Amino acid sequence: MSRKTNPALVADVRRRRPPVRVRTHRITASSARHYPPDGEGKIWWGRLKRALGTASSDFVNASLLQLQVAAQLHCGGISEIAMNAALAMIEAAEPQNEIEGALAVQMACTHTAAISVLARFGGGGGSERWAVALASAAARLLRAYSGQVETLRRLRHGGDQYVRVEHVHISEGGQAVIGNVKSQDSKGEQQDAKLVTDDGPKEGLR
Hints:
The chain is of the alpha+beta class and about 210 residues long. It has two domains: about 10-155, no CATH class; about 175-205, no CATH class. The protein is built from six helices and five strands, in the order αββαααααβββ. The chain has helices at about 5-15, 40-50, 55-70, 80-95, 100-120, 130-155; strands spanning about 25-30, 30-35, 175-180, 195, 200-205. Strands 3-4-5 form a three-stranded antiparallel sheet, with no helix packed on it. A two-stranded antiparallel ribbon has the order 1-2. It is globular, with a radius of gyration of 27 Å.
């Protein structure tokens, strides 16, 4: 059975510019220097600022250090792939200021940590107690990530939620009015409405 693909979504993905990336030069096992992959330092730095929603170079430097810690491999060393994946997630969130940028960094780091914990199940072995501890840690991280996504949504759209009612159920003997109900206007006329009862709709009620 073939899956239908949304043409508009495919076109949007194809139009998107490739996300900003970094190259890393290892200094120690836990630190590295970041530099542009194509040598265009000024353009690259500007793209990093836009990706993080900031005009502050200090904010960019701090964010890169935070991502660097999160991208450190379990066996040591910093994963350049993990850092660039995190930057792609952050740029996709399109933060508009430092508050949203910091939240996007947290989301990327939380996701990386959750996947790292889940990956430890792949090796098998270990006691049941160890497996339960891993499962609990992964669940907490995944809940934290969901909470961060919801927080970003609330920052942008507020906390109001709207519920659209698709069906109206009327019990026996009940009735409901569908449409706008208005009081008498200046000419003494009333708005037509449709009355729905358990026997079905009735038109033209005044």
